[in-house]
Amino acid sequence: MTHGNGGFAENGGSPWSLRFEVLGPLAAWRGGTPLELGPLKRQAVLAALLLRQGPWSVTTG
Length: 61
What we know:
Blueprint: E1 2-4, E2 7-9, E3 18-21, E4 27-30, E5 33-34, H1 40-51
Antiparallel strand pairs: 1-2, 2-3, 3-4, 4-5
């Protein structure tokens, strides 16, 4: 995971990478495509999880 300019990028910027920006308005991209983050409550939970320290766990299913 890399970070810079207030954001995080998974997989070093590959076409399927996820990038999050948490400084300023919360924003996310998959590859170069902006993602819809849903209602404000959902965005607040995502921001809290992104800013949380500790191990990261990602599951797909």
